[in-house]
Design brief:
By secondary structure, this protein is mainly α. The chain has helices at 2-7, 36-52, 68-73, 85-95, 99-103, 115-128, 140-152, 174-187; strands at 13-14, 59-60, 107-112, 163-168. Helix 2 packs parallel to helix 4.
Length: 188
């Protein structure tokens, strides 16, 4: 899809992938009540960097919105007892820092019936390759609870004219459906 937008539509695109990893700071190696809120806040700061760090691109693509952290906060199985209400408050200030930009952006929420299988496949591969993940792998019920929270709280995106939920599959054709929707949303 990116290639098509660049070539056919002659658009300059950037796909920033800044990340905060636990092993970047010794305070975050293991989740703790003292620093977990700060780690999660810094995760959101890196997502926010994806929004504002660009040169002259026409389109900035994010694989994740800073609002994802808000959805995680609403997921019961994600409450591991590390983050206090005040820590959540400090994180929310960062989550909504660029609300004005997000309200004027094209937002595509991708839904895939195979999301659980995709997730457990990625986590299993990471485990087999001895990659350390930030948290223990969720079971299916916990994961689907998170998916439910993402769906239930989509009203956080206020500009419904530039927001679209799109069902996709694990195939090489779904991108065409997404591309057509993006084209229509860019016209608005």
């Amino acid at each position: 899809m990116i290639k098509r937008l660049e070539e056919k539509d002659d658009l300059k695109i950037i796909f920033n992938k800044f990340k905060r990893r636990r092993n970047d700071d010794s305070r975050f190696k293991e989740p703790s009540k003292e620093y977990e809120w700060l780690f999660r806040k810094q995760v959101v700061e890196e997502i926010n960097r994806r929004i504002v760090e660009f040169t002259d691109e026409d389109i900035i693509i994010l694989d994740k919105s800073p609002y994802c952290e808000y959805f995680y906060q609403k997921t019961k199985s994600f409450d591991r007892g590390y983050i206090t209400p005040y820590g959540n408050h400090k994180m929310e200030k960062e989550i909504f820092k660029y609300k004005d930009i997000i309200d004027n952006a094209v937002i595509i929420f991708l839904e895939n019936k195979e999301c659980w299988n995709n997730y457990i496949g990625r986590e299993t591969k990471k485990s087999n390759e001895r990659h350390k993940t930030s948290y223990e792998t969720l079971n299916e019920e916990e994961y689907m609870d998170m998916v439910k929270m993402f769906k239930e709280h989509q009203n956080i995106y206020e500009n419904k004219g530039k927001y679209k939920r799109i069902k996709i599959k694990n195939d090489d054709r779904s991108w065409k459906k997404v591309y057509k929707r993006v084209e229509k949303l860019l016209e608005k």
